[in-house]
Amino acid sequence: MDIRPIRDDEVDGAARWLGDQQADPARHIASESMDPAAIATDLRQLEPRGLEDVLVAVDGDTIVGLLGVEHDTDPPRVWWRGPFVADGADVDTVADALLAAGRAQLPDHVTEEEFGPDERHAWLPAVAGRHGFHAEEASAVLVRGLGGDLDDLRGAAEDPAGELVVVPATTDLAPVVAGLHDAIFPGTHASGSRIASARDDAAVLVARSGAEVTGYIAIERQQDATGYIDYLGVSPGARRGGVGRVLVAAGCLHLAEAYACPSVNLTVRESNRGARRLYESLGFVQERLIRPWRRGFSLAHLDSPPAS
Ligand SMILES: CC(C)(COP(=O)(O)OP(=O)(O)OC[C@H]1O[C@@H](n2cnc3c(N)ncnc32)[C@H](O)[C@@H]1OP(=O)(O)O)[C@@H](O)C(=O)NCCC(=O)NCCS
């Protein structure tokens, strides 16, 4: 068995195979879509080096395993995309070989590692445990459709008191949003300055009450056209006043109307009952639980959501 970067002519076939694996909860990982076309695009655009960071295990001409090596400097972390192992191949042998090759090509500064399997994954937890990873609190994946008249969202996006307005974050508001984000989500995967940077397929909306920014929602259109709520934060002094509800409704409407997303999803800590109740009251339902396995860092200090 050899381990090497995937060739471009292999990507579409591999993406179809990954799509099948993603449809099975016992093989599903969080960071990959279920849609083969989106998976193929995603692999080609993997940060930071595209297909050079997509490793395949090959036995003769047959791909028997795949691992994406997505990594960054801020935080200095690798998010392992996989490993995926073909039916009939030895899981431990293939997964270990892919992981060893992936680690060998990481820059020295990358000291943090994460896997994100579905809670029902058949073998990744055992592989992760054997390699020194530890499990942390699961997050629920919540989804809702964005078809139909969306009257419920239109109603919820209106502030009954008429004081709150939701507007796209303009450049001058970027430092305010970044400050709020870093205070509410210290140590999370995207820093405040990153979420506040402009992109065509993503937006940050802010809630303003007069001159004061009381909350924000970061949303994006994903490769498979579905919408995603990346972050939602309300400043502690403004909580339980309906800001979060208005922001989620406005964010969903933006995804439906500006980005034509057929559905929206998000992840929320299992213990974050307040946020879950908020989403459920706006029609979101739980699709799955994702259990993060981490090595070299912990986000356990964030397990209890900030007091509201
Ligand atoms: C979650 C969060 C965004 C909610 O914002 P908010 O402005 O307080 O929410 P709203 O006032 O619009 O609440 C709407 C409904 O959600 C539910 N809810 C919100 N916070 C709750 C809490 N702490 N406990 C129980 N229910 C809660 C309630 O049903 C509430 O309706 P009610 O006040 O009429 O009972 C806010 O608490 C926050 O920023 N938390 C920290 C960051 C976070 O957890 N973000 C979500 C991660 S995905």
**Corresponding CATH architecture of the largest domain:** 3-Layer(aba) Sandwich
| CATH homology superfamily name of the largest domain | Gcn5-related N-acetyltransferase (GNAT)
In the CATH scheme, the class of the largest domain would be Alpha Beta
- How much of the sequence is in beta strands? 25-35%
Q: Report the total helices.
A: 9
Oligomer kind: single chain
Biggest sheet strand line-up: 1-2-3-4-5-14-6
Helix amount? 25-40%
Protein model, in words:
The structure is a single chain. With 308 residues, the chain is α+β, with helices and mostly antiparallel strands. It folds into two domains: 2-135, Aminopeptidase, CATH 3.40.630.30; 141-288, Gcn5-related N-acetyltransferase (GNAT) (Aminopeptidase), CATH 3.40.630.30. Helix content is 28%, strand content 29%. The chain has helices at 11-22, 36-44, 91-104, 124-130, 151-156, 174-184, 192-195, 243-257, 273-281; strands at residues 2-5, 54-59, 62-71, 77-85, 112-115, 134-135, 139-145, 164-168, 202-209, 212-221, 227-234, 263-269, 285-290, 293-295. The protein has a seven-stranded mixed beta sheet with strand order 1-2-3-4-5-14-6, sandwiched between helices. The protein has a seven-stranded mixed beta sheet with strand order 8-9-10-11-12-7-13, sandwiched between helices. A hairpin with a 5-residue loop joins strand 10 and strand 11. Residues 304-308 have low confidence and may be disordered. The structure holds coenzyme A. Coenzyme A binds next to strand 11, helix 8 and helix 9. The site of coenzyme A (COA) has 22 residues, from strand 11, helix 8 and helix 9.
